[in-house]
Write a structure and sequence with these properties.
This protein is α/β, with parallel strands linked by helices and 370 residues long. Helix content is 55%, strand content 11%. The protein folds into two domains: 2-73; 85-198 and 241-367, Rossmann fold. It is elongated.
Length: 370
């Protein structure tokens, strides 16, 4: 217990050291200044004014430091774009990578007989961005539900935040394929059509470059200041709007969409050739409910996936479109799906995957033959 306490104390001193030094200096200087003023020959009016100014500055520094402590060690929310320092601290608290550098429990390369292995491919939605406990993600909930129903399954989450379809496929071929997946859950989001030379990536880079050097310097030392800057600045919302427009535009740019469509067709064909069942899970832009701007894109992509020959298509838009955005997202600054949406997704996946499975007499599970 003492070792644990010392570890926490050492971390606090190391992490908050700059502010502790400032507080020590300000406190010492304030009390010294007040004492010297009290002993000085200045008239009482001037003494009171100067002492009041010192006390005001002293109080401001201590109150500011109190907010700094809160946003460093108590505040526990992420933001969608990962711009804020509080998000970096959220990562440090809640993100643990396994033996294959994915955010999940440890994977085993060898698959035991009688086990159906389900892989999850996707971006930050499937990764569980904003979800503190991975057991609340749809992939982990699905595994729990299937096991409780008596199915011998393993669900491995290979999702990587920020990836689009082209590098999700590369990630699958490079790292997931070797795990001998029987069913692939393909988590799809309506920014996944971005090509390699992504306009969205450039928008994010430009937003970072536009931060004034002084703001960047202070933000690097103060989590509270960084939080205030991004919350009071219009840059965050304008970046979001630019990204949304670019994401939606990709589906109207013929060469981009055709290339995207072909990559989906080829990848699905390859999965089918290897007898891997494909379950596509489409997430909508929940930030824009109830006035949703992308219904036609859902229709377009649903057709692409069906024509490509995926085993099951689950589009969450019909289930979620009548709900309010605030009830579906992590928080007002992180528009990733919250625990409720992950539960809905897990239930939909469970109902879709059950017909694909068959229990054996020796308590194993196999893919049901058609």
């Amino acid at each position: 217990m003492l070792t644990n306490l010392w570890g926490h104390l050492s971390y606090f001193i190391s992490d908050f050291g700059e502010f502790l030094i400032i507080l020590l200096i300000i406190t010492s200087a304030s009390f010294t200044g007040i004492y010297l003023l009290y002993k000085s020959s200045l008239n009482e009016t001037n003494k009171k004014i100067l002492i009041s100014l010192i006390l005001f500055f002293f109080s401001f520094v201590w109150i500011y430091s109190g907010f700094e402590v809160y946003f460093r060690y108590k505040f526990d929310q992420s933001d969608s774009l990962g711009f804020l320092n509080v998000t970096k601290r959220w990562y440090a608290r809640h993100v643990v990578y396994n033996n294959y550098q994915f955010r999940d429990n440890d994977f085993r390369l060898e698959k035991k007989p009688g086990v159906v292995r389900i892989g999850v491919m996707g971006d930050s939605n499937a990764w569980g961005y904003g979800i503190k406990d991975i057991n609340n993600r749809f992939s982990n909930q699905l595994e729990t539900k299937l096991k409780k129903a008596g199915y011998n399954v393993e669900v491995y989450n290979f999702a990587v935040p920020g990836e689009d379809t082209w590098n999700e496929i590369e990630e699958y071929n490079r790292n997931a394929k070797k795990f001998n997946i029987d069913i692939l859950i393909w988590s799809y989001f309506l920014n996944d059509a971005e090509p390699k030379d992504s306009a969205g990536t450039q928008i994010l880079i430009n937003s970072g470059k536009q931060i004034p050097p002084l703001i960047r310097l202070i933000s690097g030392h103060s989590v509270f200041f960084d939080y205030l800057y991004w919350r009071l600045s219009t840059k965050y919302n304008s970046t979001f709007l630019q990204l949304r427009n670019v994401d939606i535009q990709q589906y109207s740019i013929k060469p981009v969409f055709e290339a995207h469509k072909i990559s989906i067709e080829n990848f699905t064909k390859d999965l089918n050739k290897n007898n891997i069942k494909t379950v596509v899970l489409v997430f909508p832009f929940m930030r824009y409910f109830p006035n949703y701007p992308a219904t036609s894109i859902h229709d377009k992509m649903d057709k692409v996936f069906k024509d490509a020959g995926v085993t099951v298509l689950i589009d969450l838009l019909p289930t979620l479109h009548n709900k309010q955005a605030k009830d579906l997202i992590i928080n007002r600054f992180d528009t990733h799906p919250n625990e409720l949406v992950h539960k809905i997704a897990a239930d939909k996946l469970y109902n879709a995957i059950i017909p694909l499975l068959e229990k054996t007499k020796d308590k194993g599970t196999i893919i049901k033959t058609q």
